[in-house]
Amino acid sequence: MLLHEKMETFPFSNSEKKVIAYMLEEKARIKKETIKEIAAKNYTAPSTLIRIAKKLNFSGWNDFRDAFLDEVSYLNEHFKDVDANFPFVEKDDFSSIASKLMHLNNEAVQDTNHLIDQNDLYRAVKLLEKSQEIYIFATSGNLLIAQDFQVKMSRIKKRVTICTTEGEQLFAASNLRKDACAIVISYSGETNSVIKLAEILYLNHVPIISITSIGESSLGKFADIKLRISTREKLYSKIANFAVNASICYLLDVLYGCFFSLDYQKNLNYKLMVADMVESNRTSTSDIIDEKRQRITDD
Question: Tell me: the pLDDT tens digits for 196-212?
Answer without folding.
Answer: 999 999 999 999 999 99
